[in-house]
Design goal:
Number of strands: 8
Number of helices: 1
Order of helices and strands: EEEEHEEEE
Largest sheet: 8 strands, antiparallel
Strand content: 35-45%
Structural class: mainly beta
Radius of gyration: 18 Å
Helix content: under 10%
């Protein structure tokens, strides 16, 4: 792996310990922080600080109803309101400075197991929202 620009071809993702990489077509890791205004009287402009963090992981899958596949993994997570660990790394290689592992404990508030039109691939988007104290953790070792 070379540092710098890259074409995403072979990331690795796991949801609740299940590797669903070969069913995924897109993944996104998003880390946000609240913007808190702390402007006091007498200021000439607004002053803002970053507050609490939040995270989301969104993955697009080609739907698969087989055992240990997409629906068999996602449906119980959603229907039982289960907190799960989601991990995503950009390359199918050892974790390192050029291949960080992003980990989050999250919940999946919505799930649409059937989606698509006539003649289209059935796809599903799984969006996980942070439910842990640590938010998204980036590991390089």
């Amino acid at each position: 792996m070379a540092a710098g620009k890259f074409i995403i071809k072979n990331p690795v993702l796991n949801i609740n310990g299940v590797d669903l990489t070969n069913r995924a077509s897109s993944a996104e890791v998003t880390s946000d922080k609240d913007l808190v205004e702390v402007t006091a009287f007498g200021a000439n402009s607004k002053q803002q600080l970053l507050g609490l963090g939040d995270g989301k992981m969104s993955i697009d899958f080609f739907q698969d109803f087989g055992a240990a596949k997409v629906d068999a993994t996602l449906w119980p997570i959603h229907s039982n309101s289960t907190e799960v660990v989601i991990t995503i790394k950009p390359f199918n290689a050892a974790v390192g400075v050029d291949n960080p592992l992003y980990t989050m404990t999250g919940v999946m508030p919505s799930y649409a197991p059937i989606s698509g039109g006539v003649g289209e691939a059935s796809t599903v988007t799984a969006e996980f929202t942070n439910s842990g104290d640590t938010g998204i953790v980036r590991t390089t070792a």
